[in-house]
Amino acid sequence: MQIIPAPYPLARPRRMRRDDFSRRLMREHTLTADDFILPVFVHEQAGRAPVPSMPGVERLSIDELLKVAEQALELGVPVLDLFGVPDPDAKTADGRIAWDDDGIIQRAARALKSRFPELGVMSDQALDPYTTHGQDGLIDETGYILNEATIEALIKQSLSHAAAGVDILSPSDMMDGRIGAIRQALEREGFIHTRIMSYAAKYASAFYGPFRSAVGSAANLGKSNKKTYQMDPANSNEALREVALDIAEGADMVMVKPGLPYLDVVRRVKDAFGVPTFAYQVSGEYAMVKAAAQNGWIDHDAVMLESLLAFKRAGADGVLTYFALDAARLLRST
Ligand SMILES: NCc1[nH]cc(CCC(=O)O)c1CC(=O)O
Ligand SMILES: [Mg+2]
């Protein structure tokens, strides 16, 4: 697009900014509650337990989850994304509780779908909350994450979630080929409506710290990292290749993660493929806004909405954000 601007004073961009009506008229992007997916942590305990590194976020019992779901529905937030917090002594090297039909996610999904069938239920597929080593997959004696063996575990986890009523599976493990394998298993078992949002371009990021405390995998992971399967933050051509593979394997939607520091990747993915594209504003991003706001250094609500709008400007169709309910509430009142 070649624009030959009229010279000043014929062109005065400030004319359009002068009044609220003309600012609104030329606004290119808007936020609504439809743009949000709320991640929630579901634990085996009764009641709620705060996550200290994520002020305002709590681990929820299934009873409490139903209350949050009711608020989401009331505010127009379309989807809840479930993360399981198992009891520490239920963890094993193979994370098998992840595909237990009576596991925390399976019970939570059944409770949500029977009480609020119209609310979208999404869940995470990866083994990290359920393994004693805190890695997303199965490991060999050297600690390397085994691709094929992990895919078999992810298929079991995925089918168990789909059978419990989960509408959107979101494999977050970054094994090669798992989207195709899960999609084929879903088709074979008759789950033809189950959607897949793949964590297609997921980076080995330091911004996940508070999440790992929230699901209780931080201590299990210890000093090890996820660099042999999550992407190098230095790369973005590689992200396009990862996204192309996941679309070809049958993903309905793709995701880039983390969010704000990776908006360049969101834009490239959207421009290259034009598929439903999402971004995850992760725990560390949330914690930074909270911490600065608690110190009185930034305006919490203004920064929250500005950061969410930035995802839309970058081309995202929606955002996974711990701010979902607060933002939806604020948007309703303005
Ligand atoms: N595989 C699990 C998973 N799913 C979402 C997040 C991070 C979410 C956040 O930081 O908010 C992680 C952590 C990780 O990969 O270590
Ligand atoms: Mg991949």
From TrEMBL:
Pfam families named in the record: ALAD (PF00490)
Stored InterPro entries: ALAD, ALAD_AS, Aldolase_TIM
Enzyme class, first EC level, given as a word: lyase
EC number: 4.2.1.24
Catalytic activity entry: 2 5-aminolevulinate = porphobilinogen + 2 H2O + H(+)
Pathway it works in: Porphyrin-containing compound metabolism; protoporphyrin-IX biosynthesis; coproporphyrinogen-III from 5-aminolevulinate: step 1/4
This protein's record includes keyword DNA damage: no
Keywords: Heme biosynthesis, Lyase, Magnesium, Metal-binding, Porphyrin biosynthesis
Domain of life: Bacteria
GO MF entries: porphobilinogen synthase activity; zinc ion binding
GO cellular component: cytosol
One of the GO BP terms on file: protoporphyrinogen IX biosynthetic process
UniProt: Mg(2+) binding residues: 242
Positions of the catalytic residues: 202, 257
UniProt cross-references to NCBIfam families, sorted A to Z: PRK09283.1
Complex and partners: Homooctamer.
Family: Belongs to the ALAD family.
Record's protein name: Delta-aminolevulinic acid dehydratase
Species whose genome carries this gene: Lampropedia cohaerens
